[in-house]
Design brief:
Bound molecules: S-adenosylmethionine
Radius of gyration: 21 Å
Oligomer: single chain
Structural class: alpha+beta
Organism: Vermiconidia calcicola
Strand content: 15-25%
Protein name: Histone-lysine N-methyltransferase set-6
Length: about 350
């Protein structure tokens, strides 16, 4: 499986836009067409770590949320949310988040945000991307070999040396969190993950710049060094690259309001909700409900019509047609005639 099955719509090929969601029954205005599951990978940006519930993504106008778990560096709006989170993550997940939190505390002086950097340089080419990941894979391989033959004392030294020497000193918590959440989901359901995530529209050159590419490869290496041994088989360049390539054209922004609010809190990958194409005159509105999404018809939709959302949020809706098209080209990789989409 990958595309969702529904009596209301089918996922089909559409002209010049890959697959899309086509109504297979008449949908009256306000029909809830689809509700998503939890994200397969997501990040809540570090700057909001005390303000956004790690389970349901609720945000209370910048107030620090009441339930704080210092071992993992996350907050929750209620004890119930905290218990759900612990249950969903399981022992391995909780352990991995603890390790990441300790690592970030240790490295607090070299924390950076590669995604926040302006796009000054050209995007890396496919060859540059391939070379960077090949190199990262080699380094990870030698680190694993050294680690598997080292005593506990020596293992700590190997990690320390690796962290000091091989990579840029920078540590990007947002990339690390996004990758770790996706790696954990992969470790929990490898086959389902493989079909759902790998089936998404992929951007093979998703990196904003060479420093961004390097930050992503470094994050993979850092996760190789710090995650529990049991999780290591899932910490691979393939899994990380799939997560990065998929996010570029499929991620949903997590905003503070139920629709597009003013605070951009993070983003998530929702594979089964990723088949809606863009239209500047959408007939479907999406709304975040906790950590999931609901898609609702905003007018009557006939059988055979394509169900489209808008990929543009907030101020972007006010852009001119030319500006919109350039934004869609830059961030979503497509050009569409304004009269069609
Ligand atoms: C979230 S996916 C939508 C599903 C996608 N069509 C597929 O086959 O998996 C986003 C990608 O779909 C394509 N797309 C979405 N809306 C489009 C449009 N109006 N015109 C052309 N391509 C579009 C672009 O390639 C975009 O990066």
């Amino acid at each position: 499986m990958s595309p969702p099955i529904s009596g209301l719509f089918a996922v089909q090929d559409v002209v010049d836009a890959g697959r899309g969601v086509i109504a297979i029954s008449s949908l009256s205005q306000d029909t809830v067409v689809f509700k998503s599951e939890q994200p397969s990978a997501h990040v809540l940006f570090r700057q909001y770590r005390k303000e956004v519930c790690a389970r349901c993504f609720s945000y209370d106008r910048g107030r620090t949320l009441p339930i704080r778990d210092n071992a993992i560096g996350k907050v929750f709006c209620t004890r119930e949310c905290q218990s759900w989170w612990v249950e969903e993550q399981g022992r391995l997940g909780s352990e991995a988040w603890k390790q990441l939190h300790s690592f970030l505390q240790l490295k607090s002086k070299v924390i950076t945000n590669a995604h926040g950097l302006p796009m000054l340089a050209a995007k890396p080419t496919r060859d540059e991307v391939q070379a960077a990941w090949d190199e990262a894979e080699d380094r990870a391989g030698s680190m694993r070999r050294e680690l598997s033959s080292a005593s506990q004392f020596k293992a700590d030294k190997v990690l320390q040396r690796a962290l000091q020497q091989s990579w840029s000193q920078a540590v990007d918590p947002d990339i690390l969190s996004y990758l770790l959440s996706g790696i954990l989901e992969y470790a929990r359901h490898p086959e389902q993950w493989q079909t759902e995530v790998s089936d998404l529209a992929m951007d093979e050159t998703p990196y904003r710049s060479i420093p961004d590419l390097k930050a992503q490869c470094d994050s993979f290496l850092q996760l190789t060094a710090i995650t529990p041994v049991e999780l290591l088989p899932s910490v691979t360049p393939q899994v990380c690259q799939t997560l990065i390539n998929a996010a570029s054209h499929n991620s949903f922004g997590i905003h503070s309001g139920s629709e597009d609010g003013d605070e951009y809190l993070g983003y998530g990958l929702y594979p089964e909700a990723s088949y809606f194409n863009h239209s500047c005159r959408p007939n479907i509105a999406k709304r975040r409900v906790g950590s999931a999404w609901e898609f609702r018809a905003i007018r009557d939709i006939d059988i055979g019509e394509e169900c489209c959302i808008t990929y543009l949020g907030g101020d972007e809706k006010e852009l001119t047609v030319v500006e919109r098209r350039s934004r869609l080209k830059q961030f979503w990789g497509f050009e569409s005639p304004p009269d069609i989409h």
